[in-house]
Amino acid sequence: xxxxxxxxxxxxxxxxxxxxxxxxxxxxxxxxxxxxxxxxxxxxxxxxxxxxxxxxxxxxxxxxxxxxxxxxxxxxxxxxxx
Length: 82
Description:
The chain is mainly α. The protein has five helices and no strands.
């Protein structure tokens, strides 16, 4: 694995741990695709730093479990603004 990919994976993991943002929000901040963020923090991070990987995994699982709620809130806001 190239060094800049390792650095990016660790940087993205640190950001997710610090802000608890979703993969989509993180990809917008760092101008990389959602697929890249997801691969970096799931597959590559597990090889680089397993402890960080476990922490990020918990956040991603939480975000997955509440996505239906967030979707409903955004739809509600959409129709309230009209």
